[in-house]
Structure formats: structure tokens, C-alpha cells
Amino acid sequence: MTRIPTLETERLLLRPVEESDFAAVHRILGDSDVMYAWEHGFTAEETQQWIKSCLARYKRDGYSHFAAVQKDTGELIGLIGPIKETLEGETYLGLGWLLRRDRWKQGYALEGAKEALRYAFDVIGAACVIADIRPENEASIRLAQRLGMKAGHTVIKRYRDKEMPHTIYAVEKE
Q: Does the pLDDT value for residue 104 go beyond 70?
């Protein structure tokens, strides 16, 4: 298996997610405000499955979301990183970010996403990175734009038998 590195920013360590992170991850994924794009907070079982999927992607793809750990407190405050995504039959390198609600509007998501984007280009070797974002998710749209991403086409994702439009934001390696 590829060793997943720990990345560092001014205020964050981005390290692989571990099964022992369950409580901290569930604090994020179980929060319906954080997960409003999914239209529900995850149950404990869904959080456990999310962690298992993350660990499987590390083995299969060599990357997945990182646990974003605040350096000064040691707390896991977010889940940020690259993931392989298939949308409408096309495979992309996506970038995702979920941040604990009490850390919103403090620059942590942007700081972590910038480092994860650098990792996607410089280490994974991506030529283009996307983020698929619900049109009403203004905070994520602003973050994508601050990463240099431009809006493209809309795709429909199905989740829990519901069609959910997502706009594809993309940035190419300079």
C-alpha cells in the first residue's frame, strides 16, 4: 500500500483518517448543518461506512480525504482532500472539504484545501482538479473560486433516490 503522507500548513496537519477518529469524524458528518448538501447528518453507521470507504480509497487509489487537525489544539476539525470521482461516466480527481461548524469562517477550509490542491497537482500528478458543488452552497462556491476554480457544466447526482444538481468547478495545473 502507498504510504499516505502527513501534510502541513501554518495551522493544520493533514494526515490520513484512522478508524480511531470515529468520534471526531462523526461530530462533523453527523451535523446536519455541515451536511446540508446531503440533506441530513450521517448516522453513526453511515459515519463508520464513510471511514471504511476512505481507508479503502487509500489502498485502492493511494489518496482520499485527510483528517485536518488543528496544530495548536490537536483537534480533528475537518476532512479535506482529493478523491477519485466518476460523474456521468467520466473519472475526475475531485477535491472535497467538510469543516466542523465551530471552525467555519476562520480560513481553515481554504488553508487545508490549498494544500490538498497542491498535493493533487504536485504529488498525485493531476492536470485538472474539480469540485462538484450544490448550486445553493455559497460558502463552498466562494472557496472553490478562491482556489482558482471556474464553474462549468451541471451534473445530476442521485442520492437516496433523489436527483441533486451539482455544478462542476475546475482548475487546471499552471
A: yes
Cβ atoms 64, 54 nearer than 8 A:
yes
Domain for residue 2, yes or no? Answer: no
DSSP structure class, residue 121: I
Q: Domain count of the chain?
A: 1
pTM: 0.93
| Minimum mean pLDDT range among 108-117, 143-152, 153-162, 163-172 | 153-162
Provide the 3-class DSSP secondary structure of residue 91. Answer: strand
Per DSSP, the three-state class of 136 is: coil
1 within a domain of the structure (yes/no)? no
Determine the Cα–Cα distance for residues 5 and 104; give it in Å rounded to an integer: 25
* Of the candidates 138, 127, 125, 132, the residue with the CA atom closest to the CA atom of residue 156: 132
**End-to-end C-alpha distance for the chain, whole angstroms:** 30
Q: What is the CATH number of the domain that holds 56?
A: 3.40.630.30
Are 126 and 173 in contact by the 8 Å Cβ rule? The answer is yes
Domain of 119 in residue numbering reads as 7-172
Q: Are 80 and 129 in contact (CB under 8 A)?
A: no
Residue % of the chain over a pLDDT of 90: 85
